[in-house]
């Protein structure tokens, strides 16, 4: 199976963080650590934290409703 793209890996890690720590604040530092990249690398794929969450919603729609 091919390795997921970095963008997909970020979204999957974001989903995991939300699932493992419901109601807690998700930090970019924790997210970057989970993906194994720098915080700056997160922002190369998503211009803001809000866009990361928007991307997660789109990713969920594509995977759940596909």
What would your notes on this structure say?
With about 70 residues, this protein is an all-alpha fold. The chain has one domain: Arc Repressor Mutant, subunit A, CATH 1.10.10. About 70% of the residues lie in helices and about 0% in strands. The protein has 4 helices and no strands. The longest helix is centred in the C-terminal third of the chain and has 16 residues, at about 50-65.
Question: What's the SSE blueprint?
Answer:
Layout (H helix, E strand, L loop, with lengths): L5 H15 L7 H8 L3 H7 L3 H16 L2
Helix pairs in contact: 1-2, 1-4
User: From the helix content, strand content and strand pairing, which structural class follows?
Assistant: mainly alpha
- CATH homologous superfamily name? Homeodomain-like
Number of strands: 0
The CATH C-level class name: Mainly Alpha
Number of domains: 1
* Number of H- or I-type helical stretches: 4
Which percent bin holds the helix content?
A: 55-70%
Main sheet makeup: none
Low-confidence stretches: none
- Tell me the span between the first and last alpha carbons: 19 Å
Q: Please, what is the average pLDDT?
A: 90
- Element-by-element helix/strand order: HHHH
State the CATH architecture.
Answer: Orthogonal Bundle
The amount of beta strand, in percent, is under 5%
Rg is 11 Å
- What is the CATH topology assignment? Arc Repressor Mutant, subunit A
| Morphology call | globular
In short:
The chain is mainly alpha-helical and 66 residues long.
Question: What would the keywords be for this entry?
Answer:
single chain, 66 residues, mainly alpha, 70% helix
């Amino acid at each position: 199976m091919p390795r997921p793209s970095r963008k997909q890996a970020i979204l999957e890690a974001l989903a995991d963080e939300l699932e493992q720590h419901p109601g807690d604040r998700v930090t970019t530092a924790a997210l970057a650590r989970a993906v194994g990249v720098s915080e700056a690398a997160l922002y190369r794929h998503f211009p803001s934290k809000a866009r990361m969450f928007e991307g997660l919603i789109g990713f969920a729609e594509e995977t759940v409703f596909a």
